[in-house]
Write a structure and sequence with these properties.
Blueprint (H helix, E strand, L loop, with lengths): L4 E4 L2 E4 L3 H6 L8 E6 L2 E6 L8 H6 L22
Antiparallel strand pairs: 1-2, 3-4
Length: 81
């Protein structure tokens, strides 16, 4: 696919066709990582965090993967414990 770099305010932009966005399940305002690699511009989708609930995360804690207490020092400001 050949696209042109166009002026966008004081910057430059490449408009991505909706068919390309749809093929990667990207929407407007989706986050992407942009970098160069071997003189090529790479646009890589950033995987969104899953919608796992706190309850689901806590259910995954077992005696085998539970770590011990961690010393974090004395309370500061309005902290208390």
């Amino acid at each position: 696919m050949e696209l042109a770099i166009k002026k966008w305010g004081n910057s430059a932009a490449v408009r991505l066709p909706s068919v390309l966005l749809e093929s990667l399940d990207l929407k407007l305002n989706s986050l992407v990582e942009v970098f160069t690699q071997d003189e090529v511009i790479v646009i890589k989708p950033i995987k969104q965090k899953s919608n796992i609930s706190l309850e689901q995360l806590l259910a995954g804690i077992t005696p085998d993967n539970l770590h011990g207490e961690i010393e974090t020092g004395n309370a500061v400001g309005k902290e208390f414990y």
